[in-house]
Amino acid sequence: MPVTKIKEFLDKNKIKYVSIRHSTAYTAQEIAASAHVKGRNMAKTVIVKIDGKIAMAVLPAKYQIDLDSLKKSCKAASVELAREEEFSHLFAGCETGAMPPFGNIYGFPVYADETLKKDEEIAFNACSHTELIQISYKDFEKLAKPKFCKFSVLM
Fold first, then answer.
1. What is the pTM of this model?
2. Separation between Cα atoms, residue 31 and residue 81, nearest integer Å
3. CB 3.0–4.6 Å: which of 28, 56, 97, 103 could bond 61 by disulfide?
């Protein structure tokens, strides 16, 4: 889903958003700094496998995923990070590592860390390492329909 598709999805759902171009950056913390977005508002998408099935875990940039906590929250037998070759082909038009947090569009469940609920806005990669989208947190919740659980730890 290239950035134009994300914007069309947001427009179709009458979601107000801001598109922010920034210099090339790869980590969520670098992107937040480059785009002048508060680190706590920058969300990163981590692709995981829960009981062998692809899913998205969305958490604040300054946190890291705790796979054991996600496993317990999901009542899963196994949770592991997905390897690039297992998921990159599933996100046509997106640069690897720049997937937007809308797994439901791709047919994947979305797990959002509870700490995201504290913020009024959320910013995320827009399928590239040079652009992000910022929307209200409530709109993210409405569109992504995530399952909430606690699975992150502050870095």
1. 0.91
2. 22
3. 28
